[in-house]
Amino acid sequence: MDEPTSALDTEAVSTIEELCVELHRKMDLTLVWVTHNLDQARRLGGKTILLDAGVIVKTGTAEEVIARMQADHNRVSPAVLEYLQDDQAGPDE
Length: 93
Prior knowledge:
It is a single chain. By secondary structure, this protein is mainly α. It is 51% helix and 12% strand. The protein folds into two domains: 1-34; 41-93, no CATH class. The protein has four helices and two strands; from the N terminus they run H-H-E-E-H-H.
């Protein structure tokens, strides 16, 4: 699913995420969820893949991918690093 919750309010996002997780568990489905939201990747991601300009640059859990991106600035574009820093700062900063 390509950003299925990007335009939804928080309650609707939570409902959709819960439904997808339930389907995954009950039906043993593999879900591919595309998101720019790192918190959502942390909540939903079993395996996380980071694409940069269409190329896979990192794989692992969301936490592993984030940690490796921050540690390995050479292999990730400045735009991705800037996005990461903005996401880590949170909405109030």
